[in-house]
Amino acid sequence: MPFAISARFLFATYRGSNSVGQLERYPSPERLYKALVSAAYGPFGFGAILDGSGSVVSADRLESAFQWLEQHAPDAIRLPESTPNAVTPLRYRDQGVWDSKNGISKKIAAADLSCVAYSDTESGTLIWQWRHAPNSELREVLSALCWEVPYLGEACSPVRLHAYAFDDAAYPLANSLLMEADDFSFAGMANMEEFAVPAPGHLQELRNGYAKAYPKKGSAAKGSEDEKNVLSNDLTNCVRNVGYALGHPTAAAMHGSAICPWTHGILIPACVDDTERPYARNWAPKDSELVAWCVAMHRLLVRQWGYGASPVLTGRYEGIPSTLRPANNVAIQILTPDMPIADGLRGELPAFLIMLPHDIAPEDADAIERICHAVRGTRLYHRDAAQRLVLGDTREDIDLRRFWKPVERGCTRLWSPYPFCVRETRPIPDPTDARRRWGAREHVELSVGHAWRDSINEKADASRNTTDVSPVTPSSREARYWSLVDRVVASGLRVVEAQSTGRPQMERYVHKVQPGVTLMGISALIGFDPSWQTDTTIAAIGQSRHLGGGLLLPVDIPTRLLDNMGKPGWAR
């Protein structure tokens, strides 16, 4: 039977600092542990000599509860929807330092946000979860302690804690992060949240720290007042860091969810340079400008990297056949406030989104994060632009698998490429069946196959292993393309509607063009099988998917308007 402790912040805000004094976005399990210890020593009189009117909870039961927490880190954590410090300011406060010796109050003007804002709905509740609950006696103790905790972090963050057991079928709760094993891939580390958790011996460590900070005898501590204040801060010898992340599929599961092409994102807000245009409105790029702005950002990042930039950023793989290159490189897309993005990100738009592929090397990811931080304050422009942009503070903790808002209740989510999907090849004949024709649907299916190539290949490999069929490699490019299209369709992709489209000056919608390919866009409405688990994943398809084109935007349609094939009535 699973067990959980939920934390609902009464002001929908949280303020707390980690062990090095930096503002933290979420309270850690170790902070929860300290709050419970404080409640035990306060209302419950833990460790004190009490008379018959003392606490009804014995010291042995309290100590057993803390030992259980030290030995069992949460198996899953559901984090609340939040607005971090780098986003649009919501609440401020002045901070001050009181000099007790001279009686002087030094007021310091607040330069940053004083707290992190959480959603004031149920989604703003933080929930720590354990796969296996403690015994009923310990559950009662933990529940009693939770009711006595007034706040987490600083006193300006009042909280209501609630401990309870729940059904096995509900574990883990939706959108929870799971405790990670030793996963050193970039996809594992980039989307991982690290939290401090108590380890065995932490209770005694806290006792020793308290005794050191507040000795029974009134002997004067050596050093200045500032030195005294940090005596008890080094209490982390019995604390360990544990990583939590969304689960991701492995090659062992044939029918598992698809591998996301891009899993980690870096957001770089941008605004119009008002030194040149004092009355300029917010940046609102036109469809025809998306690729040009993304190319300008790409060149800036490559220039910032300097000599030896990684091929995953430049897109140039010298001497490597196309079939052996990664399916995707670093992609750059432009986000605007009118897109259905999760609430925690909306305050930073418009912005550039730097999308890192799931199989990027950790050292390349670290280098890209560094250069993204280095471009803060840079002015960006391209030759056809009538305005310049100023780049803002970088945010690097974007999980691209939880990017869009959840599907509306009673609706089915379909997708449409914005502004359209630029086709990647000319119409090609099927070398095995002359009756098959290559049309707009095949262009879309091929583009999806290129973006999700790793996932499609994994499913095909698993299918061959299951059915004991030897792999067959098509001998020509045409055969490979048709084979990929067939595998995409077999994986559950539905092209509900697709048709060719064009715009004046189509060259503005691509960066480079393959020889012999006529520039043409494809407007489409597509749906993924539920096993792909793409409901909130951001991705792009088409020839310009790495530089501002083919961004898949969610389209929620009432399920009642769809037929048995998942098509709306107006689709051809």
Summarize the structure in short.
By secondary structure, the protein is an alpha+beta fold. It has twelve helices and 23 strands.
Structural overview:
This protein is α+β, with helices and mostly antiparallel strands. It folds into three domains: 3-86 and 117-245; 262-402, 2-Layer Sandwich (Alpha-Beta Plaits), CATH 3.30.70; 411-561. The chain is 23% helix and 21% strand. It is built from twelve helices and 23 strands. It has helices spanning 29-41, 59-71, 136-147, 186-190, 202-213, 225-229, 290-305, 311-314, 362-374, 440-451, 453-467, 477-490, and strands spanning 3-9, 13-14, 76-78, 82-83, 95-99, 104-108, 116-118, 126-130, 159-165, 177-179, 193-198, 239-245, 262-272, 331-335, 351-357, 379-380, 389-391, 395-399, 411-418, 421-422, 494-501, 521-527, 551-558. A seven-stranded antiparallel beta sheet has the order 9-1-8-3-10-12-11. Strand 5 and strand 6 (104-108) form a beta hairpin. It starts with a strand and ends in a 14-residue tail after the last strand. The relative contact order is 0.12. Residues 49-53, 85-92, 107-113, 183-187, 225-232, 248-256 and 464-473 have low confidence and may be disordered. InterPro entries: Cas_GSU0054 (IPR019089). This is Type I-U CRISPR-associated protein Cas5/Cas6.
